[in-house]
Amino acid sequence: MNGLRAVVVCLVLACAMSVSPATAVTPGWSALPVPAAAPPTDVYDLAARGPGEAWAAGYEYTADEMRPLLYRWNGTAWSRDTTFPGAGEPGRLSKVQIVGDEVWFFHTDGEGAGEILRRSAGKWSAVPLPQTMWVYQDFAAVPGAAWVVGQDDAGLKVLHYDGSRWTTQSAPPDVHFVAGVTARTATDAWAWADTSTGTAILRWDGTAWRDAQVTLPANGNVHTIMLDRSGHATVSGAQYIDNATRTYLMTWNGRTWRTSYPPLGNTFTEALVRGPDGALWLPVRSDRAFQSKYARVDGDRTTFSYGPERPNAIHVKPTALARAGSSLLSFGTFEIYGSKPNLMSERLGG
User: Fold this and answer.
1) Of the four, 100, 180, 184, 185, which is 20 to 30 A from 209 by CA?
2) pLDDT, mean of residues 134-144
3) Residue 28, Cβ density class (10 Å: 0-12 exposed, 13-18 middle, ≥19 buried)
4) Pick from 107, 105, 73, 104: which is nearest to 89 by CA?
């Protein structure tokens, strides 16, 4: 009997070890109710402080106007927040940043003027930008510093806020356009930009923006840069090769870069996050119209999982992910046949 049991155990282990590196599993995503907005809606960003606080920002269309949307997660349920300056007026909310004990949001009004909305101890304050730009490309904030990158009539603009005033920073001379920015501290910020020789990674050291001399995959672009508190970094993007597109990940351990090509197809990786399990997670295009799909990348192993089934759905689109304690939250939109996209949220764990 013991011999038979040993044979069975060995067969089970052998089967587990032979599973393909890219497999589909169902780790337990569940749907979270979200109060409806005026469809069509879209989601821009999601940020969480822990299991009991998360914020999702985007916009809705009402009477042919774009209006900002803000939702708050309290650990149990999502609710709509309409207390912020500009709620109910034309405009939109985009990037959300957790900054110490505060939450910062980038807000543009109906005239195109930009500002940072700050929420602290339940109260709101606004930090207007020193000028209006015709495009605000990205926003990043940490204790003691914030950056807004975009363009005005004169071209590229990198605006820096030190907690009391705005200044304009210079990019390296061959930079034409800064597509995104992120920061770990006030003296350690990263950006990705278009230059005369292609896409480049820039780094702010507290004194100047410099080319970080990161060798990206040939014919590649950058979707996002994720910075860990440990000092590690992950660059994600797409490479165009042999008339096709493939996703790449570059990880920095503080000394060297490692490049990998997980089987993600042509996936936009801006929503990349590190989950509570230490792996990288991101939403991917689903092959099931009625379910969302997520990828988990852990070293050389990529697995996939599906969200809960949504009857009559023709498109389920998680847009943003955030770690909330021991769980993952997603926020996005879903479209039921015959209706316009409205809001949805899903959770893994918790």
Assistant:
1) 100
2) 97
3) exposed
4) 107
